[in-house]
């Protein structure tokens, strides 16, 4: 089960060295010793999953978890270079799926994301499903909901409680144009109304310590997916602290 506390997910993408990964992970772990009302998920690159898990296992915290940034749409077989949910299920509790960078750079479609979601759930991994519009318009919310319905096809209502949705408007990713918090809350509200109130909704898109509280204070936003700021240890810890105090 996913906790009822705010959830802060760090997506390091393809940016850290082993030394970076260990330093960030150990620093976050130490800071979280004093935070009991926030759940944090660190998502390192594949190659650092085991070392980071080893580092965190020295002083384990129940509110600090590890996630992967992707999994294969296949469970096993002759798929050179692929990493399956089955292979990492003992290393991670979460996995980011459907990120716009996977769509843009690797041509992943909704059917592929759907397959990955099912495999993650089959192996006890919580999928963090990314969705968002490319341009903001009057039909953005409808677009997002319809896209989610396709991506979550054949996922049962019971399984929704193990799924997180990361609302990431593509126009706000990696820019200084974060979405307005009231708008994000309205999108999150509509998603829960149309799909399931059991879904946890995160916001991602140029999240920083300067704007994190704007989103966390809204009732329908359950947490944040943090990109660039998660690589800056002090700033990420500040975001976690804001989430911890926002309960």
TrEMBL record:
GO biological process: gluconeogenesis; glyceraldehyde-3-phosphate biosynthetic process; glycerol catabolic process; glycolytic process
InterPro entries documented for this protein: Aldolase_TIM (IPR013785), TIM_sf (IPR035990), Triosephosphate_isomerase (IPR000652), Triosephosphate_isomerase_AS (IPR020861)
Pathway: Carbohydrate degradation; glycolysis; D-glyceraldehyde 3-phosphate from glycerone phosphate: step 1/1; Carbohydrate biosynthesis; gluconeogenesis
Database matches in Gene3D superfamilies: Aldolase class I
Record flagged with keyword Cytoplasm: yes
Entry's EC annotation: 5.3.1.1
GO molecular function: triose-phosphate isomerase activity
Protein keywords: Cytoplasm, Gluconeogenesis, Glycolysis, Isomerase
Origin superkingdom: Bacteria
Reaction(s) the record says it catalyses: D-glyceraldehyde 3-phosphate = dihydroxyacetone phosphate
A family per Pfam: TIM
Subcellular location(s) of the protein: Cytoplasm
Keyword Isomerase: yes
Family that this chain belongs to: Belongs to the triosephosphate isomerase family.
Subunit structure: Homodimer.
NCBIfam families: tim
Protein name: Triosephosphate isomerase
Source organism of the structure: Berkelbacteria bacterium GW2011_GWA2_35_9
Lineage: Bacteria, Candidatus Berkelbacteria
């Amino acid at each position: 089960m996913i906790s009822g506390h705010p959830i802060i997910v760090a997506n390091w993408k393809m940016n850290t060295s082993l030394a970076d990964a260990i330093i960030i992970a150990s620093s976050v772990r130490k800071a979280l010793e004093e935070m009991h009302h926030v759940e944090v998920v660190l998502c390192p690159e594949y190659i650092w999953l085991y070392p980071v898990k080893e580092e965190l296992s020295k002083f384990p915290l129940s509110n600090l978890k590890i996630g992967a940034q992707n999994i294969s749409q296949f469970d096993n077989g002759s798929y050179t270079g692929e990493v399956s949910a089955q292979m990492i299920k003992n290393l991670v509790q979460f996995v980011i799926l459907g990120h716009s960078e996977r769509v843009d750079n690797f041509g992943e479609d909704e059917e592929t994301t759907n397959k990955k979601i099912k495999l993650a759930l089959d192996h006890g991994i919580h999928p963090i499903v990314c969705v968002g519009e490319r341009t903001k318009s009057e039909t953005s919310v409808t677009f997002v909901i319809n896209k989610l319905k396709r991506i979550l096809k054949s996922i049962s209502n019971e399984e929704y409680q193990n799924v997180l949705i990361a609302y990431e408007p593509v126009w706000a990713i990696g820019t200084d144009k974060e979405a307005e918090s009231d708008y994000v809350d309205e999108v999150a509200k509509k998603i829960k109304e149309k799909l399931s109130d059991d879904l946890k909704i995160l916001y991602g898109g140029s999240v920083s310590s300067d704007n994190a509280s704007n989103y966390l204070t809204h009732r329908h936003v359950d947490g944040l997916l943090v990109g660039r700021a998660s690589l800056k240890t002090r700033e990420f810890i500040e975001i976690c602290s804001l989430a911890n105090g926002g309960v």
